[in-house]
Design goal:
The protein has 89 residues and is an all-beta fold. It has one domain (9-86): Rieske [2Fe-2S] iron-sulphur domain (Rieske Iron-sulfur Protein). It is built from no helices and 8 strands. The strands form 2 sheets. Strands 1-2-7-8 form a 4-stranded antiparallel beta sheet, with no helix packed on it. Strands 3-4-5-6 form a 4-stranded antiparallel beta sheet, with no helix packed on it. A hairpin with a 5-residue loop joins strand 5 (51-53) and strand 6. Bound molecules: FE2/S2 (inorganic) cluster. The site of FE2/S2 (inorganic) cluster (FES) has 11 residues, from loops.
């Protein structure tokens, strides 16, 4: 999905909720949207296997060393409202 400012994001739907992450792996900038969502709530980059917490974007396994940027999101009725980038941590 592309935001109004041109940012590509991936919407992650997990049993624990919905998260909006940048669709860009911090390792080499390749898209995370074709990655696999694990039963443990992580998303794995399909290119070199980095793993991130799907709800927070926190890096769990290299080769990436940085977290994936996350965006605020709120469900309002049938719509998902995507807000600004959330500071890491
Ligand atoms: S681009 Fe994601 S692990 Fe390398």
């Amino acid at each position: 999905m592309t935001l109004a400012d041109g940012t590509e994001v991936v919407i992650v739907v997990c049993p624990s909720g919905i998260a909006v992450l940048a669709d860009e792996c911090p390792h080499q900038g390749l898209p995370l949207s074709s990655g696999a969502l694990g039963a443990d709530g992580s998303i794995e980059c399909p290119f070199h296997g980095a793993r991130f917490n799907a709800m927070t974007g926190a890096c769990l396994r290299g080769p990436a060393t940085d977290d994936v940027p996350r965006y605020a999101s709120t469900i309002v009725g049938p719509s998902l409202h995507i807000g600004p980038r959330v500071a890491p941590g």
